[in-house]
Amino acid sequence: MEKLFLVGILTKYDERWEKLDSLNELAALVKTAEGEVVERILQRRDRIEPRFFIGKGKAQELAQISQELDIDTFVFDEELSGTQIRNLEDITGRKVIDRTELILDIFAKHARTLAAKVEVELTQLRYRLSRLTGKGIALSRLGGGIGTRGPGERKLEIDRRRIREHIKSLERTLKSVELSKKIQSSRRKLLFRIALVGYTNAGKSTLINRLTHSNLLVEDKLFSTLDSTTRVLYLPRIEKRVVHHGEARLGEARKMLITDTVGFLRKLPHGLIASFKSTLQEAIEADLRLHIVDISHPYCELQLLAGNQILEDLGILEHPIIYVFNKTDLNHDTLPILRQKYPDAVFISALRGKNLDLLKQRILSFLQ
Q: How much is the mean pLDDT over the chain?
């Protein structure tokens, strides 16, 4: 298993608790990428150092630590420039990646559909193309490991012209895939559509399994779901009076579609969200969005705000949304406060099946 050292930076404008939580999240990302976090550091600095990000002295200190602990890779919690990565690798003698590259590596690992695979490769190539100046033409690192999946496994020693040509080819493929998805989407417009959105690992897949009796992959890892998955949902019969030869009867059960979408994450680059619009198309076109929030997380409201920011980037924050606070079985302390703060939200436990009837009723109320 690859051994990784996490590096964060704390400036005078940052909150320490938020940076520590971000490092914890970075450690969860490493776990998802099947790496082992050996050590971590949060360095206090007044400003970012242009050449070495953390300063030359601290970089030399990391080089010594990497030998003592036999570190394979340094992962920085902030986005690095190509020059900074090259300089840090020269001093430490170890592979250096940043948060974005780690996320893209996980995306490359979990992509299943053609659309997701093309979007991942496009984003990786654009990201690495912008760093050619700093890292030189040889982008593929010897030895493989985390940060080298996707196009990194092939020869990325190709020049800028060939990379741009490949990008154009992938863009044409993606347009073709998007056209096909639009045709499929037009067929679905006759049915009411619900999209599950929210922070990664909030329990969206567990909820859709409960509601539709499916068996989608559920793992305690970030981004275990990357490709959107749609299932048919039947809501309970709606009791209503229908006069027919003087008799009353029940209305038919309502059939609709519900989609599990890729999870959100704090500090996702704006370009990454723009690249994955095809994967998030179901969330964009849905009639109703259920914003799932993990109430057991100590900073769940911060995750909610991060999700809202991404919805705003997609231009759908003002569209119909029901907040659904999940994992209530794991949180009893802040539950009363959150109920008071979000009176229109639904509080459930997807794993335990708690209050799912209440959630279904809220969807029915929206329909009516």
A: 83
In this prediction the pTM is 0.80
Helix, strand, coil percent content, the chain, rounded in steps of 5: 45, 20, 40
Do you know the residue count of the chain?
368
Residues 245-278 as b/e (b if ≥16 CB within 10 A, e otherwise) read: eeeeeeeeebebbbbbbbbbbbebeeebbebbeb
d(CA 155, CA 139): 8
Taking the C-alpha atoms of residue 295 and residue 95, their distance in angstroms, rounded to an integer, is 36
Contacts of 30 (CB under 8 A, 6+ apart): 4, 6, 36, 37, 75, 102, 146
Which of 90-104, 131-145, 152-166, 331-345 is predicted least confidently? 131-145
* Cross-sheet strand order for the sheet of 73-76: 36-44, 3-10, 73-76, 95-98
| pLDDT tens string 6-43 | 999 999 888 999 999 999 999 999 998 999 999 999 99
Which H or E element spans position 28? Answer: helix 16-32
The strands making up 321-326's β-sheet, listed across from edge to edge, are: 229-234, 255-260, 192-198, 288-294, 321-326, 346-347
Q: Please name the residues in contact with 341: beta carbons below 8 A apart, sequence gap of 6 or more.
A: none
The model's pLDDT over 90-128, given as tens digits with 9 standing for 90+, comes to: 999 999 999 999 988 888 887 777 877 888 888 888 888
Element (DSSP H or E) covering residue 44: strand 36-44
Question: What's the pLDDT at 323?
Answer: 97
CATH 3.40.50.300 domain locations along the chain:
189-367
Superfamily grouping for domain 189-367? P-loop containing nucleotide triphosphate hydrolases (3.40.50.300)
Q: Rounded distance, CA 190 to CA 176, Å?
A: 23
Task: For CATH 3.40.50.11060, list the domain ranges present in the chain.
Answer: 3-99
CATH domain 3-99 topology:
Rossmann fold (3.40.50)
DSSP for 241-279, written as a single string:
---BTTB--PPPPPEEEEEE-PPB-TT--HHHHHHTTTT
Check pLDDT > 90 for residue 326: yes
CA–CA gap between residue 62 and residue 46 (Å, rounded): 19
Q: What are the pLDDT digits (tens) for 154-168?
A: 455 556 778 888 889
